[in-house]
């Protein structure tokens, strides 16, 4: 069994080594990405925001302010358009992921086990301490007597109650009831 333990230890050590190697790789990739982003940012700023040189005369200063305001407006519009595009894309992504979720049928039904449980036990489980009534199902069954079935047969012979109601409803029914009353 010591041979098996050595094998397990070796596998665990290898797994740990691989994990740390992957983490180091990930860290270096993240650092490279951050450096690339910084360079990209500097290039963008150099291209779009040249260093500010303030002119001497009042007129030149006012012209510069107007240019800057125009630039701010165009950048603001661009930002707004980008935000709208982002919102639209985010909504599409949400819809697609919802469709994926629905298609995959995320909710798998768990395998149900058969449980033998009396009605009392079920009520106790559902209602907890509130459950006082004893449910002996057989005790609550109706006793059927011969006379009851005779009564039901008599009632059946009377006919469908809906027909009787229909006959008595409306003016025709009132007329019949009036004639029968006389």
From TrEMBL:
<keyword id="KW-0514">Muscle protein</keyword>
<keyword id="KW-0175">Coiled coil</keyword>
<dbReference type="GO" id="GO:0003009">
    <property type="term" value="P:skeletal muscle contraction"/>
</dbReference>
<comment type="function">
    <text>Troponin I is the inhibitory subunit of troponin, the thin filament regulatory complex which confers calcium-sensitivity to striated muscle actomyosin ATPase activity.</text>
</comment>
<dbReference type="InterPro" id="IPR001978">
    <property type="entry name" value="Troponin"/>
</dbReference>
<dbReference type="GO" id="GO:0060048">
    <property type="term" value="P:cardiac muscle contraction"/>
</dbReference>
<dbReference type="GO" id="GO:0005861">
    <property type="term" value="C:troponin complex"/>
</dbReference>
<dbReference type="GO" id="GO:0003779">
    <property type="term" value="F:actin binding"/>
</dbReference>
<dbReference type="InterPro" id="IPR038077">
    <property type="entry name" value="Troponin_sf"/>
</dbReference>
<feature type="coiled-coil region">
    <location>
        <begin position="27"/>
        <end position="106"/>
    </location>
</feature>
<comment type="similarity">
    <text>Belongs to the troponin I family.</text>
</comment>
<dbReference type="Pfam" id="PF00992">
    <property type="entry name" value="Troponin"/>
</dbReference>
<keyword id="KW-0009">Actin-binding</keyword>
<comment type="subunit">
    <text>Binds to actin and tropomyosin.</text>
</comment>
<dbReference type="InterPro" id="IPR050875">
    <property type="entry name" value="Troponin_I"/>
</dbReference>
<protein>
    <recommendedName>
        <fullName>Troponin I, fast skeletal muscle</fullName>
    </recommendedName>
</protein>
<keyword id="KW-0007">Acetylation</keyword>
